[in-house]
Recover the amino acids of this structure.
């Protein structure tokens, strides 16, 4: 089965790292996977997004026109992508920053106050990891253990960094 | 790993000693990778040139002295390199040139397209010459074909073009690097490495004697004929019982394959032929498929370029339809599935 996830937010929120983490975790689990960042004249504070496709079969296109899962880390992404989600899909909203009314009745909305939770954990920059934890739990795309292993692979020897991110990831995971 | 970086790693493993580049989206990760990794290797050179023209002429110089050399760019930048590519072809010098295509004409867009097929497969610059053109369709194939490109370039003393696109360059996929070239590659006989103990050699592209130049052209074309015979490759997928065969290359072929699987699941007999060498074009393989299939659909992310090679190969046999999306639009597999399904029923193949 082919499942596509689109993660969007402000440049600097770590939306591309979220996608990269997810893609590498799927790779560790031996799945077919593609990761495609939206590139261009993106700058810090501008919008950025990436698409991760995970499948048991070969993946025809890394682009998602109607993804099963969408993560909106900020308001503009929530406005832009709410109409792209496949019917029956999950819409993850960073409720710390998203206020827009969601017009779709055929999707499940998962609200995560990612910034607030990260601040409470004492690491406001790890809001993306809180959301990634929630995504891992609710989507069932990959195991939490694979996510943690990926974190360690990406962050390498920086133990303090791994600990902060792992804590945020687990907190998000345990919300549901 | 992203496609651009995968080319960089494969090139280094293939024994690429020199890389010369000039920035342009969507291939900058390749320049970045080479800056990071090649510049640290002993006996290797990385230069961010002052222009595309300078970069290709640096490749010209590096190749002259016998080094495996590479440059990369995207569509508008590749146009600027054409003069140098023509000179490389004239001097029978190997080189690897990567074109991560974007929408055109002009400065175009930064999104993936396949609009440089004509430019790549017809030589591109002035004069009567060809370059080998490889059309990868995954990050793994970008790596594999980069290694093959260096081997082909040396074997036939010819510039080889890797014709990728913005999506292939930017996307990440798992990739395995298969082998590494020997640390010491054999020294090419025509390379200029100092004339101590031998008469001096001159490598040039100009001759005032037309019959001398005619002989050079003949010699090039004899080699091109040999390349056609020995190096033409393509992939076929479910063509044996197909009533309709889609012909597509690169990222478009990958999208088409997904569409074909959908159509197959609904009982439609559709197959895929994917040229891997775009020049030489797999004419014989297309003719072979035409023995059992009468209906073709060429699908490209341009307004119809490779279709001309398909029509030349078929020489009036069978019927050829076309579907294209130009400008940097990346069609979904479901869109292509609708196109092939409609054609299948329109032609009464069900």
């Amino acid at each position: 089965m082919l499942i596509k996830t689109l993660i969007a937010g402000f440049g600097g929120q770590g939306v591309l790292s979220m996608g990269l983490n997810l893609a590498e975790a799927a790779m560790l689990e031996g799945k077919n996977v593609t990761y495609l960042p939206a590139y261009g004249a993106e700058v810090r504070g501008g919008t950025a997004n990436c698409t991760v496709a995970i499948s048991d079969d070969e993946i025809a296109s890394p682009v998602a026109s109607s993804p099963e899962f969408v993560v909106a880390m900020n308001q503009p992404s929530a406005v832009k992508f709410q109409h792209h989600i496949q019917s029956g899909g999950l819409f993850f909203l960073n409720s710390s920053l998203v206020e827009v009314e969601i017009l779709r009745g055929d999707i499940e909305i998962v609200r995560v106050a990612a910034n607030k939770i990260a601040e409470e954990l004492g690491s406001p920059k790890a809001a993306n990891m809180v959301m990634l934890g929630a995504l891992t739990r609710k989507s069932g795309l990959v195991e939490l253990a694979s996510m943690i292993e990926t974190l360690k692979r990406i962050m390498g020897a920086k133990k303090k960094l791994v600990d902060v991110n792992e804590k945020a990831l687990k907190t998000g995971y345990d919300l549901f | 790993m992203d496609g651009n970086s995968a080319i960089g790693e494969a090139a280094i493993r293939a024994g690429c000693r020199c890389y010369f580049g000039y920035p342009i989206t969507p291939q900058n990760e390749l320049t970045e990778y080479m800056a990071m990794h090649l510049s640290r290797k002993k006996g290797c050179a990385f230069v961010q040139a002052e222009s595309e023209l300078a970069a290709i002429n640096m490749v010209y110089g590096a190749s002259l002295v016998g080094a495996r050399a590479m440059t990369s760019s995207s569509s508008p930048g590749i146009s600027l390199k054409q003069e140098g590519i023509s000179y490389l072809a004239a001097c029978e010098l190997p080189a690897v040139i990567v074109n991560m295509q974007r929408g055109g004409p002009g400065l175009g867009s930064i999104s993936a397209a396949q609009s440089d097929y004509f430019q790549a497969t017809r030589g591109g610059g002035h004069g009567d010459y060809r370059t080998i053109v490889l059309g990868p369709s995954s990050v793994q194939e970008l790596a594999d074909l980069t290694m093959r490109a260096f081997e082909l370039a040396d074997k036939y003393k010819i510039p080889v073009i890797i014709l990728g696109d913005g999506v292939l360059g930017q996307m990440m996929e798992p990739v395995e690097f298969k082998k590494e070239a020997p640390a010491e590659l054999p020294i090419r006989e025509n390379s200029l490495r100092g004339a101590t103990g031998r008469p001096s050699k001159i490598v040039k592209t100009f001759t005032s004697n037309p019959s001398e130049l005619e002989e050079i052209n003949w010699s090039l074309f004899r080699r091109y004929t040999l390349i056609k015979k020995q190096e033409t490759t393509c992939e076929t997928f479910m063509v044996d019982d197909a009533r309709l065969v889609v012909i597509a290359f690169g990222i478009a072929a990958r999208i088409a394959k997904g569409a074909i699987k959908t159509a197959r699941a609904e009982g439609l007999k559709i197959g895929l032929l994917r040229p891997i060498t775009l020049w030489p074009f797999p004419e014989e393989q297309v003719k072979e498929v035409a023995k059992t299939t009468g209906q073709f659909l060429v699908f490209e992310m341009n307004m119809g370029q490779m279709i001309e090679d398909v029509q030349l190969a078929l020489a009036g046999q069978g019927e050829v339809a076309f579907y294209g999306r130009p400008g940097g639009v990346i069609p979904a597999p479901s869109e292509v599935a609708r196109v092939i399904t409609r054609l299948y029923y329109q032609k009464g193949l069900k």
Summary: The mean pLDDT of chain B is 96. Residues 234-346 of chain B form a domain with the Rossmann fold fold (CATH 3.40.50.920).
